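Risk register update: the risk that structure generation would not scale has been downgraded. Supporting records follow, first protein first.
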Amino acid sequence: MADTELLPCPFCGGTDTFVERADYSSAFVVCDSRVDEHSVCMARGPIAVQDDDGEEIPGGAGATAAWNRRAALASRPAEVDDEGLPAVLFDGHAVYSEITRKLGKAHCHSHEAVSATLDAVVRLVRAAPAERAQ
């Protein structure tokens, strides 16, 4: 794939995308695909900075690469558990690590408290499909 070829938008699936300059040395990708009669997606990718002086659009190659990484992840089928729910929701270690990283270990006084919170979240998520069906 050429460096300038953009994958479809990870949010709407549209292909009307382009690289926009943010300033003299950086750029990002914008999705200008129509989502209905009166609006467009307007999703924006991460801002990337210029790698070298020879870039046609400063930061364009990095912006394209970042957009395409996100788009490739969005196109992967989600891993699900036995009940058809996203498996990533129930990776307790990853969630515990994220909680302690965000809050700081000082706020997570006990593993038991975090585990009890995770168990409660899992119960709520598992109950959600049944509540939606009612």
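Supporting record for the second protein:
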Amino acid sequence: MTGIQQEVPEEPLPADGADRYRAYGPRHLDMLARRAGLSAADRLAIRAVATVLPFRVNSYVVEELIDWTAAARRLAGRQHGRRGPARPGPR
């Protein structure tokens, strides 16, 4: 089993109101990707990228800044052949 294929047991997110700093890194990617509703293939791709590019996020980003329902809706649209909103190109 390669490092990309390993899955770390899921750790619960801290309870609301937790005052301590919590960082999520590459070993938490599977948990975060499942929370976003990503497929196993997408999770594998994310882990592959994380072996090359650094990844670290704190609990504020996970709990407050990421709109998980929007991520799930966008993913559902992508799986049904629809694309998200057009992004402006370079000028």
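Residues 23-79 form one domain. On this basis the risk owner (M.S.) recommends closing the item.
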